[in-house]
Amino acid sequence: MTDDTATAATTHACCAPAGPVGPGSAAQQTRGAPVGPSTGMVRVDGGAFLMGTNDPHGHPADGEGPVHRVHLDPFWISGTAVSNAAFTAFVDATGHRTGAQVAGWSFVFGGLLPDDFPPTHGVAQAPWWRQVFGADWRHPEGPQSDLQGRLDHPVVHVTWHDAQAYCRWAGYRLPTEAEWEYAARGGLRRAAFPWGDELEPGGTHRMNVWQGSFPNGNTLADGYLGTAPVGAFPPNGYGLYNMTGNVWEWCGDWFDPRFYRRSPRHNPTGPSRGSLRVMRGGSYLCHASYCRRYRVGARSGNGPGSSTGNLGFRCVRSLSDASVDGATPARATPSSVPGDGEAAAT
């Protein structure tokens, strides 16, 4: 691979680069019933919670704080990120072409490419991201790759527009940023991770993130180099899998690092306008040496037309909508858990 730099602009390039990838073709408006591991929905009872973090090891420039109290109505949320199997059903039913397919390329982590891969352009701020022609959701590492053995992995190389198209077809929507964080916390109060404050409790890995020295030495201690199956690792208190690590997840909101200072306290839906969309949860490339955005209070943004190999999504549905087939109720209530050093919200 060459060290030439791609001309694409980047936002938080260490996490997921932003490139000039188009929105893709609009899906047909026929609704269907997605199949595969992402079918199951979990009901999350509403309530008040403390959103955001004042974590001293966080990223203040991302607008992770101040911590503020938010009240949400009940909603349904996918137990897992949307899988390749479920996205295949959507594409087969609608003929949708993703932004990466329309553009003819997407960003791939260089460590996943074979040694003899043809020369590629890299991102200036993060040269481990490579512009790979022929990379898309069906070919995660380029035209020589496929989905064999990965139908139960999260779909990647999908833009915000692609995620929106899937949700419209399935009768769902993308979560608001507040819904995502409330669900990710799994009923725990002010904990850093979906299971508590310790990254690896008892030495046990609870999510798929980079192990070793980034970006050239992954020990694979958690068992994975790239993506993991959508149901890998134990779920949180609401029965939701991989809310942190594995892949970033698109949210419906526009991203604004100043928004928490004026956010509505009831069912916030984000700013009315912007240039970036919120993405949450971190990915298999997150590492403490440069990025701790695998915390539930961390946040980031990317262009809605961007496509990368570590960015997917999950769906939600409002309780006021028709009943959700195959849903499992989750009625865990928030409990007192040692916090991550943040001040109590008022």
Word description of this protein:
- This protein is an alpha+beta fold and 346 residues long.
- The chain has a single domain, classed as paralog of FGE (formylglycine-generating enzyme).
- It contains four helices and 16 strands.
- The strands form five sheets. A four-stranded mixed beta sheet has the order 1-7-8-6. A four-stranded mixed beta sheet has the order 15-5-2-16, with no helix packed on it.
- A hairpin with a 3-residue loop joins strand 9 and strand 10.
- The protein is globular.
- Residues 1-11, 23-38 and 331-346 have low confidence and may be disordered.
Topology of this structure?
Blueprint: E1 5-6, E2 41-44, E3 47-51, E4 68-72, E5 75-78, H1 84-94, H2 99-103, E6 105-109, E7 121-123, E8 126-133, H3 160-170, H4 177-185, E9 212-213, E10 217-218, E11 248-254, E12 277-280, E13 300-302, E14 311-312, E15 316-318, E16 328-330
Parallel strand pairs: 1-7, 2-16, 11-14
Antiparallel strand pairs: 2-5, 3-4, 5-15, 6-8, 7-8, 9-10, 11-12, 12-13
What name is given to the CATH topology? paralog of FGE (formylglycine-generating enzyme)
Helix count from the secondary structure assignment? 4
Measured as a percent range, the helix fraction is 10-25%
Q: What value does the Rg take, in angstroms?
A: 19 Å
Return residue spans where pLDDT drops below 50 for at least 5 consecutive residues. Answer: 1-11, 23-38, 331-346
Shape: globular
The CATH level-2 architecture is identified as Alpha-Beta Complex
Number of E-type strands: 16
Biggest sheet: strands, sense, closure? 4 strands, mixed
User: End-to-end distance, in Å?
Assistant: 52 Å
| Broad structural category | alpha+beta
